[in-house]
Putative glucose-6-phosphate 1-epimerase
Amino acid sequence: MNALTSTLNDDFGENGHLAFRDAGEGFIVIDIDNCHCTATIALQGAHLMRWNPKGEEPVIWMSPAATLAEGKSIRGGVPICWPWFGAHATEADFSAHGFARTVAWDVINTSSLDDGTTCISFRIAEINRDMWSDQVPVEMHMQIGARLEMELVTKNRSEESVTVGDALHTYFCVSDVSKVSVRGLDACEYLDKVGPTVRKTQKGNINFDQEVDRIYFDQGQDIVIRDPIMHRDIRIEKRNSHSTIVWNPWIDKTLRMGDFGSDDGYLGMVCVESANADADMVKLAPGYTHRLWVRYSIEK
Ligand SMILES: O=P(O)(O)OC[C@H]1O[C@@H](O)[C@H](O)[C@@H](O)[C@@H]1O
């Protein structure tokens, strides 16, 4: 154990069920093992990499070829897109999905609920002031148990209104994406981003037999990923999220990205991202707080 992990464990370790570890070259991760689940979170990006409820198949997909390195985004888990989603509205050289996923975050609190659920809170540690005001910080609060709750909190302490885009870009584990359906977005309008962007209306459930990359404009209703082979539904509840991104890169894009672990790595995942993107970005007046909240649970 290095000096930093040992200090973090002294300050925030929780009775043997929350521990900091150097995963190599100073890349620090947090392992959680409580009565409900095991989980791993990278300190960089406050990036949840794994959540395995006990007795269940893994819920969160992580690429076997994911690299854990300073300043690099991790392929899989729950990347935090903040303070914009996708390309920046005006600055072409700002990185896609914002900077929160590739910078250091600090742990600010850990605790356990009476039922054994682990709570952990983070605050972003680095804001590049050329890109964003350091008077508009962000925190992430997680409750990790039989269900997984995450709340991304943006506070505007500046004197001016700001426009925030955000997403919990969650990669879910599925048996075979060509057999699953995403339910709950029937009749919603969406931007289809495969090829030239076109506005369309969803009819029925979403199935996958080619690349899917869509921003849905929804009403915050629950969304369900139905997996008939794993015999489970993953339920996504959310608050203060008015967009949902549904993404699977399919074959060609997987080959171009090269970090899915294998050429058919795309079959085992689907991203269903609770967001405020495009026309749904949040205008935050001075003194106001925006809380993007999700809860994931497994139903048989
Ligand atoms: O490779 P990145 O930056 O993690 O993005 C992955 C995908 O993220 C999705 O949210 C976008 O809609 C896709 O267009 C994008 O390809």
